[in-house]
Amino acid sequence: MDQATAEERLLAAADTLFYERGVQAVGMDAIRQASGVSLKRAYQLFPSKEQLVEAVLRRRDRAVLAGLEAYTSARATPTARILAVFDYLDDWFRQPDFRGCAFINSYAELGGVSAGVADLVRGHKRAFTAHLAALVAAAGQPPALADQLAVLANGAMVTAAITGSPEPARQAADVARRLLAPEGQGAT
Fold first, then answer.
1. How far apart, in whole angstroms, are the C-alpha atoms of residue 3 and residue 112?
2. CA–CA separation, 60 and 124 (whole Å)
3. Burial of 123 (0-12, 13-18, 19+ CB in 10 A)
4. With the CA atoms of 65, 137, 176 and 152 taken in that order, what torsion angle do they form, in degrees rounded to the nearest 10?
5. Cα–Cα distance, 113 to 81 (Å, whole number)
6. 49-73 and 102-110 helices cross at what angle (nearest 10)?
7. Are 46 and 55 in contact (CB under 8 A)?
8. How many C-beta atoms surround the C-beta of residue 68 within 10 A?
9. Which among 25, 37, 166, 170 has most CB atoms closer than 10 A?
């Protein structure tokens, strides 16, 4: 097995297992078994579990941001692109394997003990907010709205994971509509 194949198999297996069970609950032997890559090879590619976690988060960061960009850019108007963020969340929350935000989960488990993980999570959340800021600017809305929408979205992620319900995406979308409405007009 070449290096690229081994690395991809390790990242895919680790991503799935970490998301399903949590980082600390998954040992390298479980990743070896799920990936079909020997422990020796795994440690050649990722000398520590923390390095593997960081690689998984970098991979997931690229995938999430690209998916969100594709989803929102498919909408016709700037306001519809903003609200599409919450449709994206609703679709995600309805997936049978939804276990919350991998970044929030990783930060909860490792943010206090792994500066690398904490930095990657913060970077992902900054990039998410930057995406919202670009959408907000295109819609001619005040810049502060991007941070408010990020709080709504992240709160919906946590609440959906805890409750096991996709409803927080719709609730957050309702609040976003009110924030986007011209002053005094309420929800649109």
1. 32
2. 9
3. middle
4. 50
5. 37
6. 150
7. yes
8. 19
9. 37
- Taking the C-alpha atoms of residue 85 and residue 82, their distance in angstroms, rounded to an integer, is 6
Quick: pLDDT tens for 62-119: 999 999 999 999 999 999 999 999 999 999 999 999 999 999 999 999 999 999 999 9
Say if residue 76 is exposed, middle or buried (CB neighbours under 10 Å; 0-12, 13-18, 19+): exposed
* Planar angle of CA 107, 69, 117, nearest 5 degrees: 15
Structural tokens at position 157: 């992620």
Angle at 180 between CA 102 and CA 173, to 5 degrees: 40
If DSSP codes are grouped into helix, strand and coil, which group holds residue 120? helix
